[in-house]
Structure formats: C-alpha cells, structure tokens
Design brief:
Layout: H1 5-14, H2 17-30, E1 39-40, H3 51-71, E2 73-74, E3 77-78, H4 86-96, H5 103-116, H6 121-133, H7 145-158, H8 163-166, E4 169-174, H9 176-190, E5 199-204, H10 209-212, E6 222-227, H11 243-246, E7 254-260, H12 272-285, E8 290-294, H13 307-310, E9 315-320, H14 322-325, E10 333-338, H15 342-348, H16 352-361, H17 374-381, H18 395-410, H19 415-435, E11 449-453, H20 454-462, H21 464-473, H22 476-487, E12 489-490, E13 492-493, E14 503-507, H23 513-540
Parallel strand pairs: 1-12, 5-6, 5-7, 7-8, 8-9
Antiparallel strand pairs: 2-3, 4-10, 9-10, 11-14, 13-14
Helix pairs in contact: 2-22, 3-5, 3-6, 3-18, 4-6, 5-18, 6-18, 7-18, 9-17, 19-23, 20-21
Length: 541
C-alpha cells in the first residue's frame, strides 16, 4: 500500500472508523506472513453460531420438500403445499425421521406453537411450510401472522417489551437493524414528522451511521449530542449520562431521540437512574418526543429492559438477531411499535397542507392514508410505496427468525443467554488480564465490546505527566497503525463514534478466547514503549 504517514493521518480524520479499518487491514497484511496471523477485532461479527435452531430449520425444510413432492413431482419440479391434513403428515414425518438433526427440538417448537400458544395445527405448520419454501409473496406483507406472534413473544421475554403497560404492539420484519435504521429515517421524513434542519438528539458515543445518516443532504438534521460521561474506575469506563446532559431533552425543538442501548462502542446499558431521568424529562417537558431505541445488545445484559417497556407510548423499538444468534449474514431484524404511540398521534395533528402532501405520496396505495398506521407506512416506504404489494422480508428469513425465537421461548431457564453472555465476559476478563488490569463485573455491562481510553488509562496507572506527554507527542492514529503494522491487530478508534479521541474499541465477540490476551498484551507493550521513551526524554531534560 505504501501510504505515507501524513496520508494515513488525513484519511483517519476524514472517513468512518469502519472505512479506516480497511487501511489498517492492508497494513497488517503487508507485515503478516499468513492471513490467520491477523487479529481483526474491529468488527462485531460474533464467532459463535446458534446451531440447533438452524438444524431444526433445515430439517423442517426436508418436510417442506416432501410436501411439495407429494403434490407434484416431475423431475426438477414440485408443487405448492396443501394445508388440509398437514399437521397429521408432519407428525408422521417426525415418527419416520428420528435420526435427523435436532428433530426433537423441531417437535418441541411446533408443539409450543400448537399446545402453548394455541395455534391451529394445520394453519401454523402450513404457514411455516409455505414460508420456508418461499413460493409466495409475504402475506401479510408486514410479517407472517404466526411468525409475528412468536417474535412478539420473544421480544417480550428477552427485551421485556411491555404489553401490559403499552398495550398491543406490532412488528415489521426487516433485513437487520441497518435496514431498520434506513426505513425509519426515510419514513419520518416522508411523513413530515421530521423536516430538514430539525433538531434531533443522539445519545453518544454511538454506532457511527446514526451520526452520519442525519447529515446526508436529504435529511440535513441538526444533531444535539447527549454525551455519556466516562466516569473511569481504574481505566474501566462506566459510560452513564449525567442529568445535565439528559436535561437537554427538555428543549421542545428537539423532535426525536436516537439511542443504542446498550451502547456501541461503550457496551454499557443505561442504568435505572438514567432511564428514570429520561422518562421524567419526556413526560414532564417534551411529551411529543419521538424515541428510536436500538436494542441489539440488550440480550447481553441481565434483566435488560428496553425503553419500549419503560416508555412505550414514545418509543419505537429496533432489534437485530445478528449478534445473539450469530446470524449477521441472515439479515434478521425487527421494527416494533405499540398501537397507541406518539408517531400516529403526531400524524393526526399535522397541518392540512402536510396531510395533503402525504395523501399524494400514498394515493396509489389507499384513498384514506389517515387510517394507515406509521408502522404500516414504513412497510410501504420500504418499497417506495408503488411496490407496497411486494413488501416484506423474505419468508424463509422469517421462518428462521421464528425458529430462533422459539429456541428462546422454550429455554425457560435462560441457559442460552447465560452461555453467550459468559463467552463475552470471559473474553473481557482475558483482555484486561493482558493489559495487566483486574476488572470487576458491572451489572450494566454487555461486555460485547471493550472500550479503552489511553489517556484515562495512563492518568490512572502512570500519572498525569505521562498522559500529557502521550497527548503532546503522539496521535490516536499512531496506536492503531502500530497495532496493525507491528502486531497484525485491527481495532477501531472511538473518535468517529463521538467518543473520546484517544479511545479504541475492541470487539470481544469475533475472535478466539486466547486472542484477547494477545491484544491486551500488545496494547500494554505499546504503552510500555511510550513510557520508556517518556523516561528517556525526562533524563535528557
């Protein structure tokens, strides 16, 4: 690559941390003999795979193909399954195929739907068969009926979405949380709930697209950052929001609040005091605030409660299955909204000229758009309205989503959750051991990422004088490039997340356990090099 140092500095200042990661990867490749020597802890793709619900999915696929062949079997071709009697035929399939992978789990999943949820056997199994074959458009287009109900129960269990407090909520299955973000932004603008130059608040540090999307020309929002305080303890940051920051939300010119909770890169969930303060500010000072809460890391915190639970009227929930089940490639996500919500209220209160503009947008879809909920407008907008009749996540994806959800619903003791959380916390401990630090578990810590601020770490363990030297003599990018160049380690800088300039994010999800000791040790060695140079400089003076 042969990039000059000044070129690297310039690129680092101008591009997203995820784009700069490619530069670091090239540096690492130039100096590594083997590609497997590179430790890429930059991207949060988990290296665990939830196997049994996948096995149940593929085993169910055998049954679906049998149903197709039963109707019509001509060389390459089969027919569309028939609903009548499909429940009995499925029971016969179970009896005849005891040797297939996770067939017992599959039986439990189907029985859960029929015996616990009270689903009609033929109707339920037929929806799943049609869905896994994928031979029909999604219907309803927002989400398949039984699949939606199963996913709704999953969200209530794992993220504590609240029907008792907020009433019924509906779910739109989407292509991961990234698609959800794009759809929500687009529909807020298309329906005049947000206009160009409007103020929106974003809780920072945060996943960089939440900072980058609002600045695009078609949005051009004014961002009000709500800043978490590091509150470092022995170099370990707690990342909570002081009242002085949360009180910014009292400003009624702020129309929407975007949050990732638990945070990225902080990996910390907002504590009860912070949640209560948000609720108090909104309920007493900014009742019309629209809240978009991305809960993708919620399953990694014990007893996590989404703001969909605590503030259901104001909150739209976004979730992705990608991290918990190791399914980033499947693109499985949800947008959820209670029937009674601020978004629909604000739509009803729009001035006449804006309602007329919206009516023109949706004219080919319906002559009475005012009866269409905001969530269903998101569905239409996801296909530019004109293709609303072909909207919806692919049905095989929806069936796989249902199988992951059913695994959770069957797991009454929470064993799967403990297993995945234990992986993250073990790696976190190993990383800090490599740094030479001891860490005490924090109840709000998802431990999906480790965030390390070199200046805070240096102040805490090596003194203010060395921290000042580090800031004066080096740049944050120096540490990232040295890690890549000398150690073949890829990390992300947190400056692009609106986090501390001197902090880095380490994904604890995507490498082997022992690799985190290596990463911690490498960071410790780099700081030791700087300390030696600092001591030499002091002697020379």
């Amino acid at each position: 690559m042969n990039l000059k140092e000044k070129d690297i500095d310039k690129i680092y200042e101008e591009v997203s941390p995820f784009e700069f990661k490619d530069i670091l990867m090239e540096l690492a490749k130039e100096n590594s003999k083997e590609s497997d020597e590179i430790l890429d802890a930059g991207r949060g793709n988990p290296n665990w795979v939830s196997v049994t619900p996948r096995e149940a999915f593929f085993t169910f696929g055998y049954f679906a193909m049998e149903e197709s062949r039963r109707v019509w079997s001509d060389s390459y071709l089969g027919g569309m399954a028939i609903k009548k009697g499909i429940h009995k035929r499925f029971e016969k399939f179970l009896e005849d195929n005891k040797n297939l992978k996770s067939i017992d789990l599959l039986e439990e999943m189907i029985n859960y739907g029929i015996k616990v949820m009270g689903y009609d056997g033929d109707e339920f199994i037929y929806e799943l068969v049609e869905g896994i074959i994928g031979d029909n458009y999604p219907s309803p287009d927002r989400m398949l009926v039984y699949v939606e109900d199963i996913v709704r129960q999953y969200l209530m269990k794992e993220l504590q979405y609240n029907k008792e407090k907020g009433g019924n909520f509906n779910v739109f299955a989407v292509e991961g949380a990234t698609a959800a973000m794009c759809y929500v932004f687009d529909s807020l603008v298309a329906n005049h709930l947000l206009e160009k130059k409007d103020k929106i608040a974003i809780m920072v540090p945060v996943f960089t697209p939440y900072l980058e999307i609002p600045l695009l020309p078609n949005y051009d929002f004014e961002i009000v950052p709500i800043k978490a305080k590091e509150a470092s303890i022995n170099g370990y940051s707690l990342w909570q929001y002081p009242d002085s920051e949360l009180e910014k939300l009292k400003d009624n010119d702020i129309k929407a609040l975007f949050m990732v909770n638990p945070g990225n890169p902080s990996s910390m969930a907002i504590d009860k005091e912070g949640i209560n303060k948000i609720i108090e500010v909104i309920e007493n000072h900014n009742k019309d605030l629209m809240v978009i809460s991305d809960d993708v890391y919620g399953t990694f915190v014990d007893d996590y409660k989404s703001l969909m639970s605590e503030l259901p009227f104001n909150t739209l929930g976004v979730y992705s299955y990608s991290k918990y089940f190791g399914v980033t490639g499947w693109r499985l996500g949800t947008i959820a909204l209670h029937d009674n919500n601020i978004f629909d209220k604000l739509l009803r209160e729009l001035p006449k000229e804006k309602k007329e503009d919206i009516a023109r947008r949706y004219a080919q879809m319906t002559p009475n758009i005012e009866k269409v909920s905001f969530l269903d407008r998101i569905v239409a907008d996801s296909r530019q309205v004109a293709l609303n009749h072909t909207a919806g996540l692919s049905t095989p994806q929806q069936v796989q989503m249902a199988f992951f959800s059913l695994l959770s619903l069957l797991d009454s003791k929470g064993e799967y959750r403990r297993l995945t959380n234990r992986i993250c916390h073990k790696r976190q401990k190993l990383f800090y051991e490599g740094l030479g630090l001891e860490i005490k578990r924090c109840e709000n810590d998802a431990a999906y990422y480790a965030e390390l601020d070199f200046i805070e770490w240096s102040k805490c363990h090596y003194g203010e004088e060395f921290a000042t030297y580090l800031k004066n003599q080096y740049k944050p990018v120096d540490i990232l490039t040295e890690l890549a160049d000398k150690y073949g380690i890829i990390l992300l800088g947190c400056g692009g997340f609106e986090g501390p300039e001197w902090s880095v994010r380490v994904s604890l999800a995507n490498l082997n356990d022992e690799d985190y000791v290596k990463i911690g040790t490498a960071l410790h060695d780099i700081i030791k090099e700087y300390i030696d140079l600092f001591e030499e400089a002091k002697v020379l003076v």
